[in-house]
Amino acid sequence: MKRLTLTTLLAVALLSGCSSTEEVVPDIPPAELYASAHKALQNGSWTTAIERLETLDSRYPFGAYSEQVQLDLIYAYYKNDDLALGEATIDRFNRLNPAHEKSDWVLYMRGLTSMAQDRSFMHDLFNIDRFDRDPEPARKAFRDFKRLLERYPNSRYANDAKARMVFLKNRLADYELAVADFYLRREAWVAAVNRSQLIQREYADTQAARKSIAIMESAYKELGLAAPLEHTQKLKTLNPI
């Protein structure tokens, strides 16, 4: 009987939560509703802004505010850490507005959204730096910022994109270094060499590239390859950590 009561209460609570949005968002003209959403954005009230913008988007999908509503939602989703929704809204906006005057900003926000997906709440909470975690969001962010620079070299967001690409390049290089070190510790000497060479080829101007030389040196010693070992030792002398 107690289990049934708890289940019923939970169901009621969920239903109340699902129906609360329409009660919270007033039935007012679109201009007033957008003004309310804009005020919430300015105040940093992301959840309130999202509620009003989503309502405006659903009630007036082809209205005078439709483009700006989507742009505001992209920003609000990012600030509220609703990253999947932000990415979906970016895709939708690009489909509907392929040559919009703010396309550079949308591409910049895609990069920021991908970059934010590279971290996790637990990493932030405990200040943990895990270079061995899946780097795919970082790769996506790097591609987004690179595309921004290629398409809009004079964009106001270009300089920040360049700075973020430097950070992301180091992030990706550190991941590859962690993989190379993993192979070394597992005595997979050839794999350790191959991964180190990849780092030096793709991320030559990073600290990880210099550190990978030591991994190659150890691997060549284990493989008994004198000529590559001698070359690597010279390379190590020329590239001190």
Automatic annotation (TrEMBL):
<dbReference type="GO" id="GO:0051205">
    <property type="term" value="P:protein insertion into membrane"/>
</dbReference>
<feature type="domain" description="Outer membrane lipoprotein BamD-like">
    <location>
        <begin position="27"/>
        <end position="234"/>
    </location>
</feature>
<dbReference type="InterPro" id="IPR039565">
    <property type="entry name" value="BamD-like"/>
</dbReference>
<dbReference type="Pfam" id="PF13525">
    <property type="entry name" value="YfiO"/>
</dbReference>
<feature type="signal peptide">
    <location>
        <begin position="1"/>
        <end position="21"/>
    </location>
</feature>
<keyword id="KW-0564">Palmitate</keyword>
<keyword id="KW-0472">Membrane</keyword>
<dbReference type="InterPro" id="IPR017689">
    <property type="entry name" value="BamD"/>
</dbReference>
<comment type="similarity">
    <text>Belongs to the BamD family.</text>
</comment>
<protein>
    <recommendedName>
        <fullName>Outer membrane protein assembly factor BamD</fullName>
    </recommendedName>
</protein>
<keyword id="KW-0732">Signal</keyword>
<dbReference type="GO" id="GO:1990063">
    <property type="term" value="C:Bam protein complex"/>
</dbReference>
<keyword id="KW-0998">Cell outer membrane</keyword>
<dbReference type="GO" id="GO:0043165">
    <property type="term" value="P:Gram-negative-bacterium-type cell outer membrane assembly"/>
</dbReference>
<comment type="subunit">
    <text>Part of the Bam complex.</text>
</comment>
<dbReference type="InterPro" id="IPR011990">
    <property type="entry name" value="TPR-like_helical_dom_sf"/>
</dbReference>
<comment type="function">
    <text>Part of the outer membrane protein assembly complex, which is involved in assembly and insertion of beta-barrel proteins into the outer membrane.</text>
</comment>
<keyword id="KW-0449">Lipoprotein</keyword>
